[in-house]
Amino acid sequence: MRALIMLLTIMIGISYASTEGEKLFKERGCIACHHPEIDTVAPAVKKIASVYKHNKEALKKFLKGKGEPKVDPARFSLMKPQLNDTKHLSDEELEKLVEFILKSQ
Ligand code: HEC
User: Fold this and answer.
1) CB 12 within 8 A of CB 18
2) For ligand 1, mutation pick of 34, 61, 98 (most atoms within 8 Å of CB)
3) What's the pLDDT tens digit per position in 5-17?
4) Exposed, middle or buried: residue 65 (CB in 10 Å: 0-12, 13-18, 19+)?
5) Is the distance from the beta carbon of residue 28 to the nearest atom of ligand 1 less than 6 Å?
6) Residue 16 has what pLDDT?
7) Average confidence (pLDDT) over 64-69
8) Does the first or last residue of the chain, that is N or C, have fewer Cβ atoms within 10 Å of its Cβ?
9) How far is the CA of 99 from the centre of ligand 1 (A)?
10) Cα 84 to chain center, whole Å?
């Protein structure tokens, strides 16, 4: 019973974090360029997730404006201004946003 309650708490925690991340992704306007599954003007969220799947810290670093583009460097000029926004996110918000992106595989 105890284990079940713990499991439920963890599951609720995870889904809460991912909804928060998704909300940020929409509110911050990322969704305008990044489609969940299809490459448009910008790479699909799914594609970003596959590039960064074993490299969560590098993804955070990129969004803090301290990394190099890895997914589609040729189009980085479109993404660069967005970093002025993402680098001001709190650590907690950044964590949620990154979790949402990495879950989209
Ligand atoms: C004006 C369109 C546009 C908006 C808005 C936008 N992006 Fe991007 N994004 C791009 C383009 C184009 C690329 C491909 C260039 C690149 O890889 O950096 C990209 C790439 C990325 C990458 C991959 C970086 C890499 O290593 O190559 C991440 C992560 C990302 N965007 C996150 C976000 C987040 C989070 C937001 C919202 C705060 C956002 N983007 C808003 C256009 C946009």
Assistant:
1) no
2) 34
3) 777 776 666 565 5
4) middle
5) yes
6) 57
7) 97
8) N
9) 15
10) 16
